[in-house]
């Protein structure tokens, strides 16, 4: 599962790395992005890479209420092509969620220790996801909402000691094909859903339980402890 992540990078760095021309929103560094919050997502629109803040927790187009999105923050890669909530988006609305770290919780007896996964240079990487559009009301506002989910897969050897699942991370050579809404070869797409091959990709730090609360969103969330 992937239930919290960070995007501390400045927007201009994200645009440059992901080859997106412009963005019409502002972004401040985030240390604890949580479900139902907005986060930048990259997808194709009008034949170009577009970046926009979408709501985390995919709301299927057929949903009666937005609350279903809180249960759709992740999509299991093994079933994503067939599950009713995700199969239409998997076919045509694939996306990338830029991140520069994510959290998992390691069971230690009766407690859970939050751990922070990030690169040594804190460079952003691409979490593979799906996006969807839903027409309805959220917090008194009725409009067409765009939301997203992050695909997960089995953990690789490096991360398995912490958790048995990890987010699907795609390399730059895979981005064009993943984002292409005209590409519908299910076999090739499914073949991309694999645990990260690089077992030395991340640095993993035990961090404070401050991250347990979505209300905490400061640099203290990522400071190693012990």
Automatic annotation (TrEMBL):
InterPro entries: SRAP, SRAP-like. It is an enzyme of class 3 (hydrolase). It comes from the Bacteria. Keywords: Covalent protein-DNA linkage, DNA damage, DNA-binding, Hydrolase, Lyase, Protease. It holds the Pfam family SRAP. Its EC number is 3.4.-.-. GO terms for biological process: protein-DNA covalent cross-linking repair; proteolysis. GO terms for molecular function: lyase activity; peptidase activity; single-stranded DNA binding. PANTHER family: ABASIC SITE PROCESSING PROTEIN HMCES, DC12-RELATED. Belongs to the SOS response-associated peptidase family. This is Abasic site processing protein. It comes from Blastopirellula marina.
């Amino acid at each position: 599962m992937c239930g919290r992540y960070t995007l501390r990078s400045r927007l201009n760095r994200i645009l440059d790395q992901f080859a997106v021309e412009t963005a019409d929103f502002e972004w401040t560094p985030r240390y604890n992005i949580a479900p139902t919050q907005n986060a930048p997502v990259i997808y194709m629109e009008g034949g170009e890479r577009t970046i926009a803040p979408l709501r985390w927790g995919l709301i299927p187009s057929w949903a009666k209420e937005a609350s279903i999105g809180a249960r759709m923050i992740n999509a299991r890669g093994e079933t994503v092509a067939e599950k009713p909530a995700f199969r239409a988006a998997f076919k045509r609305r694939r996306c990338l969620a830029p991140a520069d770290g994510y959290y998992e919780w390691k069971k230690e007896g009766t407690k859970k220790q939050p751990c922070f996964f990030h690169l040594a240079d804190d460079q952003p990487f691409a979490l593979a996801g799906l996006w969807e559009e839903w027409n309805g009301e959220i917090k008194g506002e009725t409009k067409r909402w765009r939301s997203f989910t992050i695909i997960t897969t089995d953990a690789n050897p490096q991360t398995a000691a912490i958790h048995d699942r990890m987010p699907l991370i795609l390399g730059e050579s895979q981005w064009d094909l993943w984002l292409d809404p005209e590409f519908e070869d299910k076999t090739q797409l499914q073949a991309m859903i694999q645990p990260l091959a690089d077992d030395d990709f991340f640095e993993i730090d035990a961090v404070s339980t401050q991250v347990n609360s979505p209300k905490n969103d400061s640099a203290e969330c990522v400071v190693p402890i012990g």
